[in-house]
Automatic annotation (TrEMBL):
Protein name per Swiss-Prot or TrEMBL: Histone deacetylase
Family according to the record: Belongs to the histone deacetylase family.
Pfam families documented for this protein: Hist_deacetyl (PF00850)
Annotated InterPro entries: HDAC_classIV (IPR044150), HDACs (IPR000286), His_deacetylse_dom (IPR023801), His_deacetylse_dom_sf (IPR037138), Ureohydrolase_dom_sf (IPR023696)
Superkingdom of source: Bacteria
Keywords: Hydrolase
Lineage, opening ranks: Bacteria, Pseudomonadati, Bacteroidota, Cytophagia, Cytophagales
The species this protein was found in: Algoriphagus halophytocola
PANTHER family registered for this protein in UniProt: HISTONE DEACETYLASE 12 (PTHR10625:SF19), HISTONE DEACETYLASE HDAC1-RELATED (PTHR10625)
UniProt domain Histone deacetylase: residue ranges: 19-280
Length: 300
């Protein structure tokens, strides 16, 4: 059964006019139910992650400041969010959702988190709408619990997974693969296991060619036994922050290729959503929804 992490506090309220589309976390489950892709039994509600797992990916000094709401003004500004206890609770719930989705992936081949993909959170700081790195915590959890021995982080969001790259620079059991806009945020990139910077306006055919060649090579050389897939949809041409030129069909082909390849090689995969900033919220929801369509079709 496809198991999907979703909690009401994923939809943490933000001030009016805030550009981060929090409403997608409420609308996406509704769309999945409306289309009949899933039923209520497919969803599970995570609690908050235990502190010991947060400290596997983040420094104690940073976590202490975060949970006590004592980040500096500049540190808060870098995250892009107004800091509050509700926001920290939301972040810890998202992280737990990714960890549990990974456990379900081990059982069913795939697991999903409606939120997550917070790849800009570093060991000691948050950036770009990311306070805690659910990808990094999940990878550490899998390794420490001996549920996996080699984890591939496949990050196809338009923005480089700089925080994840920094956290795992000295960890040979985790391979970070980031395919992102060359001229997009973050302007200062970190060193991933493999970085594939893309020119502005790249379209479906070239994008998919680059992805297919490199992902097949990485799977052959690294031989992961678990994949964490950051499936951001800000690669769409309609995305106001993305600068790339993919169509909805291109995003669909990307996701089907990734999931089909993972299934064909029997590699459990946890999917987290990442970014999406098209002006029309319906485009964001449709782009994310097709990943769940692919998961149901290919795995169940």
């Amino acid at each position: 059964m496809l198991k999907i992490a979703y909690a009401p506090n994923y939809c943490h309220p933000l001030p009016a006019g805030h550009r981060f589309p929090m409403e997608k976390y409420e609308l996406l489950p509704g769309q999945l139910l409306y289309e009949g892709i899933v039923s209520q039994e497919n969803f599970f509600q995570p609690e908050q992650i235990a502190e010991k797992w947060i400290l596997k990916a983040h420094s104690k000094s940073y976590w202490d400041k975060l949970k006590s709401l004592s980040l500096s003004k500049s540190e808060i500004r870098a995250t892009g969010f107004p800091l509050s206890k509700a926001l920290v609770d939301r972040e810890t719930t998202i992280v737990q959702g990714s960890v549990q989705a990974a456990e379900f992936a081990l059982e069913f081949g795939i697991g999903m988190n409606i939120a997550g993909g917070t790849h800009h959170a570093f060991t000691d700081r948050g950036e770009g709408f990311c306070l805690l790195n659910d990808i990094a915590v999940t990878a550490h959890y899998l390794l420490d619990q001996k549920l996996a021995s080699r984890v591939l982080v496949l990050d196809l969001d338009v923005h480089q997974g700089n925080g994840t790259a920094e956290i795992f620079q000295q960890e040979p059991r985790v391979f970070t693969f980031s395919m992102h806009g060359e001229k997009n945020y973050p302007h200062r990139k970190e060193q991933s296991g493999l970085d594939l910077p893309l020119v502005d306006g790249i379209q479906d055919e070239v994008y998919l060619e680059v992805l297919k060649k490199n992902l097949v090579d990485v799977l052959e050389q690294f031989q992961p036994d678990f994949i964490i897939y950051q499936s951001g949809v800000d690669i769409l041409a309609s995305d106001k922050l993305g600068r790339l030129g993919l169509s909805m069909q291109g995003v669909k082909e990307r996701d089907y290729f990734v999931l089909n390849l993972a299934k064909s090689q029997n590699i459990p995969t946890m999917c987290c959503m990442g970014g999406g900033y098209s002006e029309d919220i319906r485009i964001i929801i449709d782009a994310h929804t097709q990943l769940y369509r692919a998961a149901q079709e290919l795995f169940f």
